[in-house]
Amino acid sequence: MTDAAFRKITQLQYRCRHAEQRVAAFESGKEYTRLRLGMKRQRRYYEKLLRRREEEIARLYKDQGVTKILTIESSGIPIAISAGFAMGVPVVYAKKNKSSNVSGDVYSTPVKSFTHGDTNNVVVTKEYLTGDERVLIVDDFLAHGSALTGLIDIVDQAGATLVGCAAAIEKGFQMGGDKLRKQGYRVESLAIVDEMTDDGISIRKQ
Q1: N or C: which end of the chain has fewer CB within 10 A?
Q2: Residue 99 has what pLDDT?
Q3: What is the pLDDT of residues 73-126, one digit of tens each?
């Protein structure tokens, strides 16, 4: 038997023993318990991270008298609801195209999706957004700024006051956030990615 063949057989034997040990651990419940504990620790970590995210948005706009949060379906809804709980204010989300469960008069504006390459006519029922509101727009990602621009238009149609916008992650290299800031809007992003390469990402200092 050659040395190479001996090493291969030894490796296979080791893997077999390791597999047998894993099976035995699962049968005894030890491996299952270890995995459950690991998942619980990971879940607690992410829960803590999510709480810090919504608390930071609430801190940034705590003195602005926000009465309503506005977002767009569907990925913006979780962070908007979390921020709404932290700030103690209701949340309204714009639907992409008017559907059968949207009744009455609506505010409407076109929003282009650069991800999907199409344009949606997003709507908000007028009774849910009135002229006496102080509105904070919240979304998960900010890239070209088309979603926020559309939501700003809806706030303007309602005659409400826009106090600002908040995003979890901003793709700074796509310039949407900086464009809105130059227009005079307050835009707060929890993290701004200025560059993405195969070697990693560059986060803007704030």
Answers
A1: N
A2: 65
A3: 888 898 999 999 999 999 999 998 766 566 678 999 999 877 667 788 899 999
Q: What whole-number distance in Å separates Cα of residue 111 and Cα of residue 104? A: 21
Per-residue pLDDT tens digits for 140-183: 999 999 999 999 999 999 999 999 999 999 999 999 999 999 99
- Residue 203 sits at φ, ψ, to 5 deg, of -100, 130
pTM strictly above 0.85: no
- Does 22 have pLDDT greater than 90? no
Q: Please report the DSSP string for 144-201 in residue order.
A: SSHHHHHHHHHHHHHTPEEEEEEEEEEEGGG-HHHHHHHTT--EEEEEEEEEEETTEE
Question: Minimal CA–CA distance to 147: which of 179, 173, 105?
Answer: 179
Query: 172-206: string of b/e by CB count within 10 Å (b at 16+)?
Result: bebebbeebeeeebebbbbebbeeeeeeeeeeeee
Residue 76 near residue 139, CB atoms below 8 Å: yes
Residues whose CB falls within 8 Å of the CB of residue 172, separated by 6 or more in sequence, listed in order: 178, 192, 193, 194, 204
Please tell me the distance from the alpha carbon of residue 125 to that of residue 39, in angstroms, as a whole number: 41
